[in-house]
Amino acid sequence: MLFCFLKKKFMCFNYFFLTLQLRKTHKRSKMEEIIKQHIEKIRQISSATKEELENLRIEYLGKKGVMNDLFAKFKEVAPEKRKEMGIRLNELKQTAQQKIDELKALAEEKAEQNQVKDDLTKPSEIVSLGSTHPLTLVRNEIIDIFSRIGYTVQEGPEIEDDWHVFSALNFPPEHPARDMQDTFFVENGREDGNDVLLRTHTSSVQVRTMERMKPPIRIIAPGRVFRNEAISARAHCIFHQVEGLYIDKGVSFADLKQNLLYFVKEMFGEDTEIRLRPSYFPFTEPSAEMDISCTICKGEGCNICKHTGWLEIMGCGMVDPNVLDASGIDSKVYSGFAFGMGIERIAMLKYDVKDLRQYFENDIRFLNQFSGAF
Ligand code: DAH
User: Fold this and answer.
1) pTM for the full predicted model
2) Contacts of 325 (CB under 8 A, 6+ apart)
């Protein structure tokens, strides 16, 4: 109470002081100066209680308030200065009105919040839930499928060296993948030849795992990879792969085929078939490309499979003895297979995604399609 009283007194004094200044000088410029000071004073107010707000209104817009007083004095202003002074006066009035409106809205919002806090029977606000990204869904499903037959997950760095991405994987020095056009280099042309680069495939994790672990090794390595490619509906400079590796005594191509057939049936359905076509990779011998029967037309022939009835989904093969030896595994004792697939490609087939760029644009309309997919 006392505080309010003093505050009001103070405001009156303030006003009195400003008006006194005006009376004393009787100069138009002084009136302008006073208007300016009032405007500044109002602008500095950032919050007010209901009572303070009402006082502010009375102080400026009330009958005996600043505005009416200044308008009364306006008559004394010389005719040639009137237009400009009128504009300044209106500016002050508008500033006061706007500030009052703004503080009022703020106070109302606060009151509403307090009310919600106080009323414990009110339903809580609806929280909008996000959904798991399709690439994460597919990655998790791949991990799940392989973990059921004994594969564990391994990871490796995204910023790699030449040894783990190329040299240990049997890439000849003049291989085009080592070219600037395909690879993002962090440090190129190092004296020791072991350039630093962004990994172009997750096969680098094969090497790191073999360097670290003794057979039997049965791992998958999901992760992000980088290639210097123009972005289009079918290619991106950042994408995701899953690498697989199985090393033990007596591992054969038949084991590779059986593991992949199991994976495909789990991922795309029991009636899905596979075929292996001879191919070439520096790190596998023999190498193959694996196709699955078209998930859309079931092998009949459609636009998606370009009327072949087959869709290519991964590369694979028996780990080249040079790779085993380079990674510290005796190729005379052990053998193994490896495979690698693109997660985007698998997700495209699984969810009928037509444009690769959609995975990275974070368009909520696209992402929402996958809520509750699993
Ligand atoms: N690293 C290959 C790529 O990025 C994929 C790949 C092919 C991985 C054959 C393998 C493999 O392990 O055996 O295109």
Assistant:
1) 0.69
2) 331
